[in-house]
Amino acid sequence: MAAELHVELVAADRQVWAGEATLVVARTASGDIGVMPGHQPLLGVLESGPVTIRTTSESEGGTIVAAVHGGFVSFADNKLSLLAEVVELADEIDVQRAERALERAKSEADAAAERRADVRLRAVAAG
Amino acid sequence: MGAQLRVYKRRIKSVTATKKITKAMEMIAASRVVKAQRKVAASTPYATELTRAVTAVATGANDKHPLTTEVENPTRAAVLLLTSDRGLAGAFNSNAIKAAEQLSEKLRADGKEVDTYIVGRRGIAHYNFRERKISGEWTGFTDQPDYADAKAIAAPLIEAIETETAEGGVDELHIVYTEFVSMMTQNAVEARLLPLSLEEVAEEAGTKDEIRPLYDFEPSGQDVLDALLPRYVESRIYNALLQSAASKHAATRRAMKSATDNAGDLITALTRSANAARQAEITQEISEIVGGSAALTDATAGSDK
């Protein structure tokens, strides 16, 4: 079965993950979007939020969730790239730290920090 | 011990201590070059993907954008100069500063005002000493720049370019940094970041003659371009910062290597002189003893008779 697409998850300072997948769900400025193999070429602006990648390899549990803070998604020739300044895999996120950050951000009314912490927690919950 | 010999011994000791220090600095710089190179390599996938995306939008959407539109009569240009916080790097900083000055000269000759933005204490000190105006300055991260640093630098520059020239904005943005070619070669280079020349971007991505797919833009071509271009500028500045850091460490390594070599040569020369001085001292002592004993023999020989 050739129904798989190559995914590259890239942060500004490193490549976070690369591999084959059957479905990628990301949140763009106009709503959630799911990309499957053979999708029409696409270039979109991402909102901060969790990105779900359904991989083909069983060793990684089939699904990868990452917290993506802003960025872009581009798809062409069965190659999907997710670009963002900051990308964190759900496994890398320290839940307690994110919760503490959320508390602090709420008390200091720091909207940007609150959003970042919230995205992290949602990614962990989805993963 | 003779006075001369003592002086030589003392100098040898001090040069040996200096040599140890420069040797240590050389090794530290060498390890940092490798680290900085690794960071450059790690940032490449992002830059490549971003360049590809910019090419795709710009050619597919045909949208005009302040960051890509050439102004007909540019009257003011911004020059971003990347230097380092610390010296001891040979001609690294002076080369970058020289390149920036040549570029500013050229821009002024074309009838443009030049706003200078500087990264790194060395460049800032150079401009302050000459009492030239600096429009923006950043320090403290030139050894290990982060993406956040590049963002901080890019923000006021993008704002300046989006402002109308009459209200204090700029029409062009140039960047002067030190390109890391290899361990032995680093060149001060200048490049025009904005307005973006889309042909150049396409060439850089190596997709000039490729047939590009027709993209579907989400939410719209204009919005994607709005969001992409600042990121592209940030990524270019980030890459320049990383290359500049790698070049600085390589320049330090080379400067320290030649300092170590010079110290070694100096020690050899001083040791030779010290040996000669010691030998001269011994020769003199022997001739004094021989002379003294000869005089004694002569004196006793005379009294015996």
TrEMBL record, chain A:
Residues 5-85 form the ATP synthase F1 complex delta/epsilon subunit N-terminal domain. CDD domains: F1-ATPase_delta. It holds the Pfam family ATP-synt_DE_N. It is a peripheral membrane protein. GO terms for molecular function: ATP binding; proton-transporting ATP synthase activity, rotational mechanism. One of its GO terms (cellular component) is plasma membrane. Keywords: ATP synthesis, Cell membrane, CF(1), Coiled coil, Hydrogen ion transport, Ion transport, Membrane, Transport. Gene3D superfamilies: F0F1 ATP synthase delta/epsilon subunit, N-terminal. It comes from the Bacteria. SUPFAM superfamilies: Epsilon subunit of F1F0-ATP synthase N-terminal domain. It is found in: Cell membrane. Residues 95-122 form a coiled coil. F-type ATPases have 2 components, CF(1) - the catalytic core - and CF(0) - the membrane proton channel. CF(1) has five subunits: alpha(3), beta(3), gamma(1), delta(1), epsilon(1). CF(0) has three main subunits: a, b and c. NCBIfam families: ATP_synt_epsi, PRK13442.1. Belongs to the ATPase epsilon chain family. Produces ATP from ADP in the presence of a proton gradient across the membrane. This is ATP synthase epsilon chain. It comes from Streptomyces boluensis. The gene is atpC.
TrEMBL record, chain B:
GO terms for cellular component: plasma membrane; proton-transporting ATP synthase complex. InterPro entries: ATP_synth_F1_ATPase_gsu (IPR035968), ATP_synth_F1_gsu (IPR000131). This is ATP synthase gamma chain. Produces ATP from ADP in the presence of a proton gradient across the membrane. The gamma chain is believed to be important in regulating ATPase activity and the flow of protons through the CF(0) complex. SUPFAM superfamilies: ATP synthase (F1-ATPase), gamma subunit. Belongs to the ATPase gamma chain family. It is a peripheral membrane protein. F-type ATPases have 2 components, CF(1) - the catalytic core - and CF(0) - the membrane proton channel. CF(1) has five subunits: alpha(3), beta(3), gamma(1), delta(1), epsilon(1). CF(0) has three main subunits: a, b and c.
